[in-house]
Specification:
CATH superfamily of the largest domain: SGNH hydrolase
Order of helices and strands: HEHEEEEHEHEHHEEEHEHEEEEEEEEE
CATH class of the largest domain: Alpha Beta
Helix content: 10-25%
Distance between the termini: 38 Å
Number of helices: 8
Structural class: alpha/beta
CATH topology of the largest domain: Rossmann fold
Strand content: 15-25%
């Protein structure tokens, strides 16, 4: 992935959310090395925000940004606290190294807006507590750039250019007074693992889990909340079957297929991390369409994303009622399809119920709901439903109609938001998007279950139901 401006774009300081698992070999930081303590002290909250260039902000600043003295950023240039103000990208640590990315010079003078300010402003509005933000961002795969196992000094013969960020970021958190008092972490990273070094995607689950566990230990908070942004889209012009070489030199017999598989895998690992670690929450960006280039979000998308993250922080971290909860995939169940208003089963036809938890109100879309895909395992292509609609009898259900049966021997799987550049548009009443998922196995027909009474006859109908509505 083009991470050229990743390090120069990080500009807000939010706290990294730490997992609870224990890791051997964790660092023993100097907890007394507080040289620039957060001025608000106990009256405010420290957040760490980190990741790649989409974390720093790549959007075009389209309206004035007045600083608020209650929202401070720990500035990388001279290690001081100052009122946060868009564009924030130059405030992140490290910064100023474009890593070879070609910036958009038509927008550069007003570029650098991200999700940090909308996040901070929403949290401040509902908590009344000042925020101190510590921002660290740079490009690179988690297995390399962000690994806690790498020390600051390069390994002899190792030419990877952006590899030693973990130890400096821990020191930076402690320097700003964050030992044991980070409120949470906002983490937006993973694009590089898919398109710079696709082999890193295969170990992304281990890399991300280790990063969470160690950061929690090394910042003195074993229960540190961690809000992960599930990566959005990348627009590619590669032709199917075309060989290629990744930015970091990996040979690929089919570059598009390799990138697609890696991108989908990273997204699904991020989704499942919320089930594998306590106090980890995932916010999807899969529906955000406004982009400034083939991989970076635009101003409007960053604003929406920041508000979503803030809502999850308010409900899950601050425990304030009335705010949005993250949506999670709960289960997939195959049931007999019944004739409409009848107990008669349509032989060979099924209803697939995909259940979610955490839905706020009802699912909705501004246009025709879309984003689902059926594949058979290992298939490189998939089939979208010919009809997708919300069930008028169940506001939490999406009805997906396909032609033909689902033979178990072909191992059918379901996706939402498949591929590098999907179009997805389903959110709930608090604008929380469904998480991208897949491949998720479609199980064999259940022996019993609630009938999906719909006149579908010669077609298979999948019913996607969200539960846990608020």
């Amino acid at each position: 992935m083009n991470n050229g401006r990743f390090s120069s774009l990080l500009g807000l300081s939010l706290t990294l959310v730490v997992g609870s698992a224990c890791c051997a070999g964790a660092a023993d930081p100097d907890k007394s090395a507080v040289t620039r303590p957060y001025p608000a002290d106990a009256q405010g909250d420290l957040w760490f925000i980190g990741g790649q260039s989409n974390m720093c902000g790549f959007g075009t600043l389209k309206e004035p940004s007045e600083p608020d003295p209650r929202i401070l950023f720990f500035v990388a240039k001279d290690d001081r606290w100052m009122p946060a103000r868009e564009p924030l990208n130059s405030l992140f640590f490290p910064h100023g190294d474009p890593h070879g990315m070609v910036p958009d010079y038509t927008r550069l003078p007003v570029g650098g807006a991200g999700l940090g300010m909308s996040f901070a402003q929403r949290v401040l509005k509902y908590t009344g507590r000042p925020l101190g933000i510590i921002g660290v961002a740079t490009g690179g795969p988690a297995a390399k750039t962000w690994s806690p196992d790498f020390k600051e000094k390069p390994v002899p013969g190792d030419t990877y250019p952006r590899r030693y960020i973990y130890q400096p970021l821990v020191k930076r958190i402690i320097q700003a007074g964050g030992w044991g008092r980070l409120k949470g972490v906002v983490w937006y990273q993973g694009e590089s693992d898919a398109v710079e070094l696709p082999s890193a995607a295969k170990v992304y689950e281990n890399s991300l889990g280790k990063f969470i566990d160690r950061l929690r230990i090394d910042t003195g908070n074993p229960d540190l909340p961690f809000i992960i942004v599930q990566i959005d889209r990348q627009v590619s012009t590669l032709a199917p079957g075309q060989p290629g070489k990744s930015k970091l030199g990996e040979e690929m017999a089919d570059a598009l297929a390799t990138y697609t598989e890696a991108w989908e895998h990273v997204r699904d690992v991020q989704r499942q991390m919320a089930d594998n670690r306590k106090n980890v929450y995932v916010v999807s960006a899969i529906d955000l369409g406004d982009m400034v280039d083939p991989i970076h979000l635009e101003y409007e998308s960053f604003r929406k994303l920041g508000l979503r993250i803030a809502e999850v922080a308010l409900s899950q971290v601050y425990k304030l009622p009335g705010h949005a909860t993250p949506i999670k995939l709960k289960s997939v169940r195959v049931e007999p399809l019944h004739v409409w208003h009848s107990d008669k089963i349509i032989q060979g036809r099924v209803v697939i119920r995909v259940r979610f938890s955490g839905v706020n109100g009802r699912l909705r879309s501004a246009d025709r709901p879309t984003g689902f895909q059926l594949r058979f395992e290992k298939a490189k292509t998939g089939w979208a439903p010919y009809q997708t609609e919300f069930d008028p009898q169940d506001p939490q259900a999406v009805l997906l109609r396909y032609c033909g049966p689902l033979p178990d021997q072909l191992r059918p799987v379901l996706y939402y938001g498949s591929g590098l550049n999907p179009y997805c548009n389903i959110v709930d009443e608090k604008d929380v998007a469904l998480p991208a998922f897949g491949p998720v196995a479609i199980p064999p027909l259940a022996p019993a279950g609630s009938p999906g009474k719909e006149a579908c006859l010669g077609n298979v109908k999948l019913i996607v139901v969200a539960e846990g509505a608020r």
